[in-house]
Amino acid sequence: MNTILVLLIILAFMLAIDIYFFQAIKTIVADSSQVTRRVTTISYWLFSFILSAGIVYVFLMNDRHGLGRVIILVAFGTVISKIIGILFLLFDDIRRGVVWLVDNVFYRGDAKITETISKVTEEGEGISRNEFLAKSAIISSLAPIAAMGFGILSGAHDYRVRKKVITLPNLPKGFDGLRIAQISDIHSGSFFNKTAVEGGVEMLLDEKPDVVFFTGDLVNEDSNEVKDYTEIFMQVKAPLGVFSTLGNHDYGDYKRWPNEKAKAANLQKLFDAHKYMGWELLNNENRILKEGGDQLAIIGVENWGLGFKKAGDLKKALIGTEESATKLLLSHDPTHWDAEVRPMSDVDVMFAGHTHGFQLGIEIGDFRWSPAQYRYKQWADLYEENGQYLYVNRGYGYIGYPGRIGMPPEITIIELKRA
């Protein structure tokens, strides 16, 4: 879709929300002085105008960092908060509509009926229902702002180690007990706390994994984003190596480049970053690990996802793995599992990321909920189908909203056991 058209749609949407939410503001200050009402109105619409101007700046200047990131965050938080507040206003408008229908359509202006409905729906003890709902709208709109603030300050780098054991009947004896650490979706361009990022790396190393997998999205859109973090991530090491693959954000597809040559150079710099950190990048290829006479294949494909880039070539990546009893696949997008991996291969375990668990959710015991589940069939944790497994990592970093609410960043430790 044309960039200008998208911008106009966003601005129109924000304006519609502003107009509707302003009902609550007017109701709250209705009994205030004229000066208070005027100052409130000017302040409300001045803030909305400045925010809209900021969105125009982000789009036209293609700024997703620094000032642009702050503008996006403020706009996102403001819109979400107002939408939640609007739910209360909508309830009041529906109530008003019911009153109007009953009065003007069903009972055609019957005075007694109208008076009864008004008493039931309009008047309360002390304050009117209109004022109560308007205040509720204002208060409820503050809740998501508080939650988002907590998610930034406390949730963004609240790394959790999640451990799983996968039992495979065909696992060679030499690899029985293999400990795999997985991280995914670093999104280094979003980080704002180097100390916390390094703390997560230390947590991973404390688990003493035999091998480490990184399943894509090292950056948001530009390879330069990782420059300040290569010294941190090059600390990630394991006896059998660190293997990585690409995610949809790594290709530079979300940034406007002056030409294809510049875009290709950016991708090459990303390859160089993986090499500098000591991470072996697998682009539709594999590596065979040997332990005595036993073999295990580690396979990596480029990004392949429904609705996203399909650069992955699984057939090519599998060439040479025929003699390996166990096959482990690194593929960024979990939709690849149902679309290609299970139907056309004997891959034992696929490791993916991509969803971030939407950076928002609830996980209590075996109960898990996130908006991510309405887009992805497999969106977090371990899945099994006919003896094949998929693990979807919730992500190490974040993008867009620089925080997490109920869906902390993850370091996965998977132990393979022989049946």
UniProtKB/TrEMBL annotation:
* A Pfam entry, by short name: Metallophos
The record's section on Gene3D superfamilies has: 3.60.21.10
Cellular component, GO, one term: membrane
In terms of SUPFAM superfamilies, this protein maps to:
Metallo-dependent phosphatases
Where does the chain cross the membrane? 5-22, 42-60, 67-91
Q: Which InterPro entries match?
A: Calcineurin-like_PHP, Metallo-depent_PP-like, Metallophosphoesterase_sf
Among the GO biological process terms of this entry, one is: lipid A biosynthetic process
Looking at the record, the residues that make up the Calcineurin-like phosphoesterase domain are: 178-357
Keywords for this protein: Hydrolase, Membrane, Metal-binding, Transmembrane, Transmembrane helix
Q: Which terms does the record give in the GO molecular function aspect?
A: metal ion binding; UDP-2,3-diacylglucosamine hydrolase activity
Q: What is this protein called?
A: Metallophosphoesterase
This protein's species is Marinigracilibium pacificum
Tell me the classification of the organism that encodes this protein: Bacteria, Pseudomonadati, Bacteroidota, Cytophagia, Cytophagales
